[in-house]
Amino acid sequence: MDYLADVMDEIGEFEDAGDYDKAFDRNQGKKSDYEVMVLFRTKEDVFDFTILSLALTDVRADGQAVFDREEMLCIPTLKADMPLAVPMVFPGDTPTNCFSYKDGEGITRAFSVSISGFDGSLAVDEIY
User: Fold this and answer.
1) How far apart are the first and last CA of the chain?
2) Model confidence over 60-87: pLDDT tens digits?
3) 3-state class of 70 per DSSP?
């Protein structure tokens, strides 16, 4: 999948986003100081698109982080012509957000989403 994940403020006053769906409001209208709106876009439809909350539980001897995951949102299909805006909280350096999907071959892929401490850009890293 070719995907794009952008902080909404960085794509202008949403004019570059076109039409998009807005996901759940995690805080019922009370915005956290650490919350930003992230827009997920894809160049081809993907299936079982899921937003997960991560909690670091351990770090293995080889340095691999181990996370507990809690499903926050799952949609059957993230369509190429309909991006999804999701409020996400980035309280520190450890990733607390993830998205996953099944590609056209049925393979599940997952990516952590965090904010770079260097320039505030979105950092997306494949975790499985």
Assistant:
1) 14
2) 999 888 889 899 999 999 998 888 888 8
3) strand
